[in-house]
Amino acid sequence: MAIATRTLTVADPAGAPQRPSRLHHRHGATWWFFAIGKTIVGLAFVLAALFPLAWMVVAGFKSKTEVIQTPFQFFPEVWRWQNYAQILGDPSFLRTMAWTFFGAVLFTVLSLAVNSLAAYAFARLEFRFKRTIWVIVITTMFIPGMTILLTSFIVVTRLSMLDTLAVLVIPGAASAAMIFFIRQFYLNIPASLEEAAMLDGCGRFAIFLRLFLPLSKPPFVVMGITAFLAYWNSYVWPIMTITTPERFVIQQYLATFRSERSSELGLLMAGSVLAAAPVMILFLIFQRQIIGNIKMAGLK
Predict the structure, then answer these.
(1) Which of 52, 107, 138, 178 is the most exposed place for a label (fewest CB within 10 A)?
(2) Contact present, 63 and 76 (Cβ < 8 Å)
(3) Can you give the CATH number for the domain in which 204 is found?
(4) 243 phi and psi angles, rounded to 5 deg
């Protein structure tokens, strides 16, 4: 006959399997309590994050007065599908969406090209005053963009860039944060690969194109999406530099729509949902790469 301990097991005279102790049951109950608690908290955060988006989508089906009516009513009394049909049938809205998408793609490509070349130079090349220039570049990360709006506006005015696509694309193409991010990735590429390419007769630019550029997909995905979102969501700089309605970006168009047709809030919500759709689709396409890069950065 086994001798039972007070805290761990209770012996069975017939030699049957021992029952779990009270301490084991207590630990199991505690684990389930925390697991359920974390699940509830996580669901609460998810619902809080998705509620504004869900409300905006539903508000696109409401009438002019239902959007801001009191008391608050989440679902409309009558679902008005014509709001989305009407905004999609507006040529100015479609033109603005296409114009903004073209500018965002151009801005993303230019940003990746400029910043990846600068990152390669700071990561692999040796030149005079390299450390001093690097300190100056990094320092610009701590300067708020709002503090240089006026000086930037004066510069683009003197360069005759106002009311052009160039004024939206060129000034913000170079980014210290993007250079820093890509540079850190390039520093982790083994130098032996670069030496082997040099032995094969490749120059610096050929090494960048044939070696570093094909390996740059992870940082390019993250930084490319960041640049695309920055352009797509820009508002303050466009309203300062763009005055022709045909060159409005989507956020500028929605703000003008809100001021000129303030009573058609259901239509405005429908347009806002459609304006957010490309961003959400972009994230859904690259979400696996984004999450993978975040995990990789956490491990490093």
Answers:
(1) 52
(2) yes
(3) 1.10.3720.10
(4) -120, -20
CA–CA dist 158, 165 (Å, integer): 16
In a domain, 218, yes or no: yes
Q: If you search the block for the tokens 């210290």, which residue do you land on?
A: 176
Residue 82 lies in a domain: no
- Give the range of the structural domain holding residue 218, as residue numbers without chain letter: 90-260
Tens of pLDDT along the chain (300 residues) come to: 344 444 444 444 444 555 555 555 566 667 777 778 888 888 888 888 888 888 888 888 888 778 877 777 888 888 888 889 899 988 999 999 999 999 999 999 999 999 999 999 999 998 999 999 999 999 999 988 888 999 999 999 999 999 999 999 999 999 999 999 999 999 988 888 888 888 888 888 999 999 999 988 888 998 999 999 999 999 999 999 999 999 999 999 999 988 887 778 888 889 999 999 988 888 888 877 777 665 555 445
CA separation, residue 26 to residues 31, 37, 45, 258 (Å): 9, 16, 29, 59
Identify whether 80 is part of a domain.
no
How many other CB atoms are found less than 10 A from the CB of residue 61? Answer: 20
Number of domains in the chain: 1
197 vs 7, 11, 190, 217, 254, CA distance in Å? Answer: 67, 72, 12, 20, 51
3-state helix, strand, coil in the chain (%, to 5): 70, 0, 25
Which residues have a Cβ under 8 Å from the Cβ of 193 and sit 6 or more positions away?
Answer: 211
Q: Could you give the CA distance from residue 147 to residue 153 in angstroms, rounded to a whole number? A: 11
